[in-house]
């Protein structure tokens, strides 16, 4: 079967949009103390600059959030719901503009960027529907209520893979719970998030949501700021550990989503004609830059060759190119650093004896392009099996017994998601043995607004989404009223 050639960057892509964005501090625009270059990963060229927040501006943003928090927390919950609904409406009205900026700085296909922005707008509305009521305890000579109250100022740090959606997944529940927020995006993808801040500052009261950008020093200054009472971070394990150390001296609450190395176990009687396509799609979402993507596949040794062939066929029909091109299926990786990491992990596997079935090397294009890659014959202990590659690579590993597959699936330092593919009754028992936050059966990475999502060990602390994610942004306060005898 013919392999579609890679798509070069669109020749006029740099003319599509040149975004100019500002910080949002206390409801007002701020230019920043400097400028940070932002690269288009499809061309590896600078196409815009983001404002760089100064430490003085950071103090102003946190101070504004602290002052605004008094009135915001005092608002009736119904009023805060109304504000969230208005945020969703305002973001939806400008979804196309935000999506184009997002594609330019992150690389994903424009239709995927538009879907992310629409999902972010919808997330405001979905979050507004969540309940946050006091719990009345049984009468034991007193009237006792367990209330959920806000922490105060929340530092929200969003990642580069889904910058807009994952920012809203933090901002929306934090605001509904009565907190105020200082949001900072990844320095690799700051523009769409800053644009969202500009949109929402016309909706929210001043100081309720402040959006800043800068380098890692600014992010660290934010997490160490004495007025911050909760830190919500999505990103690397190393940065998550650093944040936990910074928060510990002041006992600041943290919610840390640190990624995963999700295994998928294919059972011997699974329908590979259906399963192969599902696995491919769930491994390649956002060019593999998705914490809950399939990162490694375990299949009975007798069926490994068949699965590998089917995955290779899907890879051969996938077009890699500039996200601004409607024909593109997979865009570039977000940065040169990420491209180097993926290439190094594949090269390390090959050096250890693994076999690359298709792909396996960066494409000869100006941007950060890596093709969909299938690797098999991995020796046990290979880094490509044990670490999160965060790229468009599928390691396919044969097993002899299901016990062996479960042991290898559980053997990494991550415990975010996992899946089992095959007859549901048989799959349920195997899924129960997987050490993870979410065990899917005959699907993978299906994240929903009303279902909690989180992991254990190096995958982080706490959960996001739904009622359970909302509770992470609250602390318990007991109201105890004595009843006279």
UniProtKB/TrEMBL annotation:
The UniProt entry, under Pfam families, shows:
Aldedh
Classification via InterPro entries? Ald_DH/histidinol_DH (IPR016161), Ald_DH_C (IPR016163), Ald_DH_CS_GLU (IPR029510), Ald_DH_N (IPR016162), Aldehyde_DH_dom (IPR015590)
Domain Aldehyde dehydrogenase span(s) in chain numbering: 34-477
Tell me which UniProt keywords the record has, alphabetically: Oxidoreductase
Which residues does the Swiss-Prot or TrEMBL record annotate as the active site? Answer: 257
Q: What family is this? A: Belongs to the aldehyde dehydrogenase family.
**Stated name of the protein:** Aldehyde dehydrogenase family protein
Q: Which organism is it from?
A: Marinactinospora rubrisoli
């Amino acid at each position: 079967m013919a392999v579609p050639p890679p798509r070069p960057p669109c020749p006029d892509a740099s003319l599509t949009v040149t975004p100019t964005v500002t910080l949002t501090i206390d409801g007002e625009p701020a230019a920043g103390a400097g400028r940070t270059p932002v690269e288009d990963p499809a061309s590896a060229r600078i196409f815009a600059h983001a404002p760089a927040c100064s430490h003085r501006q950071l103090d102003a943003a946190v101070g504004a959030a602290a002052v605004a928090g008094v009135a915001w927390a005092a608002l009736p919950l119904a009023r805060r719901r109304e504000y969230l609904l208005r945020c969703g409406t305002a973001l939806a009205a400008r979804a196309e503009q935000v999506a184009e900026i997002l594609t330019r700085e992150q690389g994903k296909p424009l239709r995927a960027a538009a879907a992310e922005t629409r999902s972010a707008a919808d997330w405001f509305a979905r979050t507004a529907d969540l309940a946050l009521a006091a719990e009345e305890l049984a009468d034991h000579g007193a009237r006792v209520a367990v209330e959920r109250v806000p922490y105060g100022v929340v530092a929200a740090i969003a990642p580069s893979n889904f910058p807009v959606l994952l920012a809203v997944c933090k901002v929306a529940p934090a605001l509904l719970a009565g907190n105020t927020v200082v949001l900072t995006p990844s320095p690799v993808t700051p523009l769409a998030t800053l644009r969202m801040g500009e949109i929402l500052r016309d909706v929210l009261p001043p100081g309720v949501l402040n959006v800043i950008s800068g380098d890692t020093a600014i992010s660290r200054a934010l997490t160490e700021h004495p007025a911050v009472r909760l830190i919500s971070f999505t990103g690397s394990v190393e940065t998550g550990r650093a944040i936990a150390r910074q928060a510990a001296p002041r006992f600041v609450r943290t919610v840390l989503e640190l990624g995963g190395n999700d295994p998928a176990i294919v059972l011997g009687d699974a329908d590979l004609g259906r399963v192969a396509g599902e696995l491919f799609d769930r491994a390649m979402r956002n060019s593999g830059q998705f914490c809950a993507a399939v990162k490694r596949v375990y299949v009975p040794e007798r069926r490994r060759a068949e699965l590998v062939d089917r995955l290779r066929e899907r890879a051969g029909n996938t077009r890699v190119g500039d996200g601004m091109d409607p024909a593109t299926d997979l865009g570039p990786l977000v940065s040169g650093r990420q491209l180097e990491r993926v290439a190094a992990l594949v090269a390390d596997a090959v050096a250890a004896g693994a076999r690359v079935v298709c792909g396996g090397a960066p494409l000869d294009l100006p941007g950060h392009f890596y093709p969909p890659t299938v690797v098999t014959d991995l020796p046990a202990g290979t880094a490509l099996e044990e670490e999160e590659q965060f790229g468009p690579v599928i390691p396919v590993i044969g097993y002899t017994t299901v016990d062996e597959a479960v042991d290898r699936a559980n053997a990494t330092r991550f415990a975010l998601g996992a899946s089992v593919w095959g007859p549901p009754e048989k799959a349920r028992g195997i899924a129960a043995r997987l050490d993870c936050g979410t065990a899917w059966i005959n699907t993978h990475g299906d994240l929903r607004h009303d279902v909690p999502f989180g992991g254990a060990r190096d995958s982080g602390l706490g959960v996001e989404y739904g009622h359970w994610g909302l509770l992470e942004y609250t602390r318990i306060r007991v109201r105890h009223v004595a009843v006279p005898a």
